[in-house]
Design brief:
This protein is α/β, with parallel strands linked by helices. The protein has two domains: 1-104 and 265-367, Isopropylmalate Dehydrogenase (3-Layer(aba) Sandwich), CATH 3.40.718; 130-257, Isopropylmalate Dehydrogenase (3-Layer(aba) Sandwich). The protein is built from twelve helices and twelve strands. It has helices spanning 15-33, 46-52, 58-66, 89-99, 123-126, 166-181, 197-210, 223-232, 244-257, 301-313, 318-333, 352-365, and strands at residues 5-11, 38-42, 69-74, 104-110, 130-136, 144-152, 155-161, 186-191, 217-222, 239-242, 265-272, 278-284. A ten-stranded mixed β-sheet has the order 2-1-3-12-11-4-5-10-8-9, sandwiched between helices. Strands 6-7 form a two-stranded antiparallel sheet. Helix 1 (15-33) packs across helix 10 (301-313), helix 10 (301-313) runs antiparallel to helix 11 and helix 11 packs across helix 12 (352-365). The longest helix has 19 residues, at 15-33. The radius of gyration is 21 Å and the shape is globular. The model has no long low-confidence stretch (mean pLDDT 95). Bound molecules: nicotinamide-adenine-dinucleotide (NAD). Nicotinamide-adenine-dinucleotide (NAD) is lined by residues 14, 18, 74-77, 90, 93, 261-262, 283, 286-292, 298-299, 302, 340.
Length: 367
């Protein structure tokens, strides 16, 4: 089979800085593991706006549809804050998600032992945490019609509509159950079936899909209770399945359990392509961090872990993903820290490139 293809869209701010480290890691897998990717690069966000007047050129969109996976850095920055809504950097990202139909957003919340002290929760609640949140990404209240602000009886009324079809719920549920089969075989589905009809349908459809996954233990929880449980006893969860709105909030909550934004990867998956691989985009959760751009302070680990997710979910290279994650675990255990993982009294942080260096060394040692 031809070498798998990757489109790198580094974007703005620290995006290109952290992506430079990912490119070195990709090169390492080519050199040392005979795992060679056909890599192309293009512009997104403010960088694309500067070059083309749009946050994503049609040619770039077409390339994203053809490759096996897209790796994205980050978009946005103060320079673009006053642009018209239609050409804001984030529109490039939303266009990719929408046109690739990336309906399942995977956000792991994993606590590396060496960083357990960084959490706002007690260490014993968080050490060893490994949760995956599957958030439905292309429907629900962010997209439902009718929407808008109208005048009724001389008063402004704001309207958004939570709308889910059975098919939309079913495909998100399948993504969650498939993942659970590769992990701890537990899915907790979160909605508000007590007060929302869309929640009742969500619960019904998830229960129906579960019939095909008897090995997986399914539970249901109201999303507000889910938020409480996430900060009370997060290790009770394996895979959490939820809709777009609740997922937006719950995944940020779960993410921060683990400490720093600079550590958090994500994947957005769509339907399988002709070669069986899902349409996919991998990106760190953090933004373009304009406050530290150009200063070699960015932590590249979130972006590197996003590539590890690509190895696992797009390329079926779970053992190599494990190798990369273990290398990161090792350097953290050895005390390697970028500035975001340290207090002011903790000594000199590693630069972005130095963090890349120690991870590459740990990869070499893993052979
Ligand atoms: P941000 O994630 O860029 O930064 C928040 C804070 O976390 C900053 O103090 C930053 O320095 C720090 N931080 C983030 N990533 C880091 C890393 N890898 N290493 C070390 N520190 C890191 O969020 P923001 O400041 O709210 O937004 C900045 C810009 O990014 C805005 O234009 C926003 O719209 C955009 N944004 C883009 C995305 C994306 O591309 N997916 C996501 C969020 C925000």
């Amino acid at each position: 089979m031809a070498n798998p293809s990757l489109l790198i869209l580094a974007g703005d701010g620290i995006g290109p800085e952290v992506m430079d480290e990912v490119k070195r890691i990709i090169g390492w897998f080519g050199d040392k593991r005979d795992l060679t990717f056909v890599v192309s690069e293009d512009l997104v966000g403010g960088a694309a706006y500067d070059a083309h007047g749009v946050p994503l050129h049609d040619d770039t969109m077409a390339k994203a549809q053809e490759v096996d996976a897209v790796l994205l850095g980050a978009v946005g920055g103060p320079k673009y804050d006053n642009l018209d809504f239609s050409v804001k950097p984030e529109r490039g990202l939303l266009r990719l998600r929408k046109e690739m139909d990336l309906f399942a957003n995977l956000r792991p919340a994993q606590c590396f032992d060496a960083l357990a002290d960084f959490s706002s929760l007690k260490k014993d609640l968080i050490a060893g945490l490994d949760i995956m949140i599957v958030r439905e990404l292309t429907s629900g209240v962010y997209f439902g019609e009718p929407r808008g602000i109208h005048i009724e009886d001389n008063m402004r009324v704001g309207i958004n509509t939570q709308r889910y079809t059975e098919a939309e719920i079913e495909r998100a549920a399948r993504a969650a159950f498939d993942l659970a089969m590769k992990r701890g075989k537990k899915v907790c589905s979160m909605e508000k079936a007590n007060v929302m009809e869309s929640g009742i349908l969500w619960r019904d459809v998830v229960t129906e899909v579960h019939a095909d996954y008897q090995e997986v233990e399914l539970s249901h929880m109201y999303a507000d209770n889910g938020a409480m449980q996430l900060v009370r006893a997060p290790k009770q969860f394996d895979v959490i399945l939820t809709d777009n709105l609740f997922g937006d909030i719950l995944s940020d909550c779960a993410a921060m359990l683990t400490g720093s934004l600079g550590m958090l990867p994500s994947a957005s998956l769509g339907l399988p392509m002709a070669n069986g691989r899902p349409k996919a985009m991998y990106e760190p959760v953090h933004g373009s961090a304009p406050d530290i751009m150009g200063q070699a302070k960015a932590n590249p680990i979130a972006c590197i872990l996003s590539f590890a997710m690509a190895l696992r979910y797009s390329f079926d290279e779970g053992a190599e993903a494990d190798r990369l994650e273990a290398a990161i675990e090792k350097v953290l255990a050895d005390g390697a820290r970028t500035g975001d993982l340290m207090g002011p009294e903790d000594g000199t942080p590693l630069s972005t490139t130095e963090m890349g260096d120690v991870i590459l060394t740990a990869l070499d040692e893993s052979l």
